[in-house]
Amino acid sequence: MPREPELILVADHRGGELEARARFLGSRAFEVERSGSLRETVRRIGARRPALILFEPMTRSGEEELAALDLARGEVPLLLQCDRTDREAPQRAGQALRGGAWDLFFRDAPDEELELRVRRLFEQAALLRERDALRHAASHDDRTDLLRPKAFQERLEEHFSAAHRHQLELALVLIDLDKFGAINKRHDHTVGDAIIARVGEVIRRNLRTEDVAGRLGGDEFAVLLPYTGKLNAASVVSRLRAAIAKLSGRVEGAREEVPVSASIGFETFDGGDLDSLETLRRHAEVALRLAKARGGNQAIYFRKPPAEEAGVVAEAR
Question: Hey, which CATH number is domain 7-139, 3.40.50.2020, 3.40.980.10, 2.30.30.100, 3.40.50.2300?
Answer without folding.
Answer: 3.40.50.2300
